[in-house]
Hints:
The protein is an all-alpha fold and 119 residues long.
Amino acid sequence: MTFRKNNASKPRWSRLARLPGHDCLLRTMDRNQFGADQYGDQNWRNGTVEAYLDALMRHALALCGGSVEDDKDPGALAAGLHHTDAIVWNALVLSELIAAQNEENNETVEPMEAQNDRI
Length: 119
């Protein structure tokens, strides 16, 4: 008998274990826990797209500048958190906040280029 399972259109979570740095989700959850300890559980839900985009960009620019560890935040440094962890966490939060905003407004987010045209 051959095993069959209709998983063709479902996410293949097992692929994550094959990625270099496969503990990415665990490190991202460490970042989530760090924030929950600092600001309160689920506090990110009260944030804004702009705040999380700013945070993502700060961490991305620090990483591009050669900083791996989050050394601007003593707590994050002591916890061994890296900028990449914050980038992934902020991207996940942005995705959630934008989806919620779109659902609430029943619209899509305007591309940055179009926003810049109005300035």
